[in-house]
Amino acid sequence: MKLFFHHKPLSSLLLLLLLLMFMLPLHCKCNGNSDSNQLSFPLVKRYRFKEEIVPAVIMFGDSIVDTGNNNNLETIFKVNYPPYGKDFYGGQPTGRFSNGKVPSDFIVEELGIKDVLQPYLDPNLGIEDLLTGVNFASGGGGYDPLTSELASVISLEEQIELFKEYMEKVKSMAGEDAANAILSKGLFVVATGSNDVTNTYFNNPLRRYHFNFDSYTDLMIRSASSFLQDLYNLGARRIGVFGVPPIGCLPSQRTLKGGTQRECAENYNELAELFNTKLSMEINSLSHNLPFARMAYVDGYYLPLDIIQNPTKYGFDVSNIGCCGTGTIEVAFLCKYTCTNVSEYVFWDSFHFTENAYRIIVRDFLNKNMNYLIK
Q1: Catalytic residue among 122, 144, 349, 364
Q2: How far is CA 374 from the centre of its chain?
Q3: Where are the beta strands (DSSP E) in 53-196?
Q4: What whole-number distance in Å separates Cα of residue 228 and Cα of residue 50?
Q5: How crowded is residue 296: how many other Cβ atoms within 10 Å of its Cβ?
Q6: Cα–Cα distance measured from residue 338 to residue 86, given in angstroms and rounded to the nearest whole number
Q7: pTM attached to this predicted model
Q8: Do residues 111 and 187 make contact, with C-beta atoms less than 8 angstroms apart?
Q9: In the annotation, is 349 catalytic?
Q10: pLDDT, tens digit, 9 for 90 and up, residues 206-227
Q11: Considering 63, 104, 138, 319, which one is annotated as catalytic?
Q12: Among the residues of 145-265, which ranges form H helices?
């Protein structure tokens, strides 16, 4: 089945925001080159996978985990150009929203499956790539259907349709047994929701007019629950779902909403925490009520918050600005130059973490959740 993605143009609000970004002073603390050092993280040990083999990882979500699905879409939410990917293999941009690897890659690496998780829309995928898992995530998306529509990216509903197409390919190439092994023993991961908070709710007056915090997070939860039940009905059994990070402490939100001192925007964090509380409860309910389901809520909030508030504890020096440009607002095509010492930074751009920060988050996820997910 061939899918075609038809979306409306970007909203005037998003375009206005981009114009405002250009108007900010771009005093560069930076240089055209940088070095990313491999750090040792004594506080977050590498996950040691001992017993049952996970044959594949299947990823859904947004730019936190997208590995290049947006490259061929007509959207500004793509980063297949320098300086993105400067510390990836060969220093080549691949569409990953960071300087190197993203959580999708670290999950398969830490589990010993393969080095990176390829995007499903990569035209060069081979049978081995398909059998060990692929990535359906699309940067700019979210739980609210309006989020993906405004960004002209692949919605969760469309990601599910692509997953169905993928499973048919696996069956035709490798047989029913291989497909069933992916469904029953594969690890399914979902990471999205940030854009719902930053772009669709707080930057959209109509959403704020029709929804308060409680009702909007209910809308997000209904979408998340429907998506997870769709995955379950298609055969997925081991599913980890990341909560939304502390959005108000991202460099971009500090700049836009944090006042002259660039403090964390607490109303953004309040909405994120409310959603995470409801998401955790919904996942617990689904896991108990769906036979043989193993669903886990994954903390995507408190560990990142601790890294931001106590960067030196994790081997970093800078956590209130990103590495590219001024570090205060730049993302995507606004990132022209980078810092010279990316290993000291928690954030790569004003919205996304560096690969070293992502590695810490992934190891924490695996250490705390895999024993439950693979029982």
Answers
A1: 349
A2: 22
A3: 57-61, 187-191
A4: 28
A5: 20
A6: 10
A7: 0.89
A8: yes
A9: yes
A10: 999 999 999 999 999 999 999 9
A11: 63
A12: 145-151, 156-174, 176-185, 194-195, 205-210, 213-233, 251-257
